[in-house]
Each structure stands twice: as structure tokens, then as C-alpha cells.
């Protein structure tokens, strides 16, 4: 799978459709400012595997909202060094930011599932995802 995502794509948002599996993978590439990275930025990508019939546009809003919340996290770049042998300097923020990202993703996914369930029930929430709230 790693080689599959090792692509040169200029788009920040793209999807891949798996026809025989009736699934699609929605991807959003973004950069996180980093004091530790060689180019002063970490590459990040959020991906979501969904059934092919779901609208990509609503999933895009979910992914962008999730990325904004991640970007707002103080020193979030440190989470990328959780299992890095070269950064074993006992910086407690590494574990803290890693757990914060997990929490953000769990909360965002829970919100997305709730919205999908509401839509199935015929409840159409008009408000967009709460970007950066």
C-alpha cells in the first residue's frame, strides 16, 4: 500500500475508485509546519475508505475539517516522531500530540458517522462541518 501512495500528485484532494470492491478512497494531502523536518514541513495525508455511492463532497468537508483541527494543535509536528529512534530525547510533547491527533480523528469520525446516520434517517443538517472550531 505504501508504494501505491508514493505518487507525484499536485492535487491536495483526490480519490481512487476500486470498481470491483465498490469502494473509493478519498485522500487529502496537506503540510504541517515543523521545526524538526528537513524542509520545515511534514507531509500529511488523511484518507477515508467509503462505499462508492457516498458523495465525495461531504467527505471532503469532513477531511478538511479534520486537517484544520490537526493544524491548530500546538507543536503537532512532534506526533510524527512517536516511533523515531533519532528523536528519543524524552520530549513529552511527542506522546501528547500523538494522542491529541488520535482524539481529533476519533471525534471527527464520530461526527461524520452521526451525519451519515442522520442523512439516512432523512434528517438533513444544513450547517457545514465546524471548520477550526
Features:
single chain, 133 residues, alpha+beta, 3-stranded antiparallel beta sheet, 3 strands, globular
Any idea what the radius of gyration is?
17 Å
Q: Report the span from N to C terminus.
A: 33 Å
Helix amount: 25-40%
- How many strand units? 3
Q: DSSP helix count? A: 2
Query: Which runs of at least 5 residues are low in confidence (pLDDT < 50)?
Result: none
Q: Mean pLDDT, as a whole number?
A: 83
The multimeric state of the shown protein is single chain
Secondary-structure element order, N to C: EEEHH
Percent of residues in beta strands?
15-25%
Class derived from helix and strand content: alpha+beta
Most strands sheet: 3 strands, antiparallel
Apparent shape:
globular
Strand order of the largest sheet: 1-2-3
Give a verbal description of the structure.
Helices cover 34% and strands 21% of the residues. Strands 1-2-3 form a three-stranded antiparallel sheet, with helices on one face. With 133 residues, it is α+β, with helices and mostly antiparallel strands. The mean pLDDT is 83. α1 packs antiparallel against α2.
Amino acid at each position: 500500500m505504501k508504494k501505491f501512495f508514493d505518487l507525484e500528485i499536485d492535487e491536495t484532494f483526490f480519490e481512487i475508485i476500486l470498481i470491483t470492491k465498490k469502494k473509493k478512497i478519498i485522500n487529502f494531502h496537506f503540510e504541517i509546519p515543523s521545526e524538526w523536518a528537513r524542509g520545515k514541513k511534514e507531509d500529511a495525508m488523511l484518507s477515508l475508505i467509503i462505499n462508492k455511492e457516498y458523495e465525495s463532497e461531504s467527505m471532503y468537508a469532513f477531511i478538511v475539517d479534520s486537517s484544520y483541527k490537526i493544524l491548530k494543535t500546538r507543536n503537532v509536528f512532534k506526533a510524527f516522531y512517536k516511533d523515531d529512534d533519532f528523536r528519543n530525547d524524552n520530549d513529552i510533547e511527542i506522546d501528547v500530540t500523538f494522542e491529541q491527533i488520535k482524539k481529533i480523528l476519533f471525534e471527527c469520525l464520530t461526527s461524520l458517522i452521526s451525519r451519515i446516520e442522520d442523512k439516512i434517517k432523512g434528517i438533513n443538517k444544513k450547517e457545514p462541518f465546524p471548520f477550526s472550531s
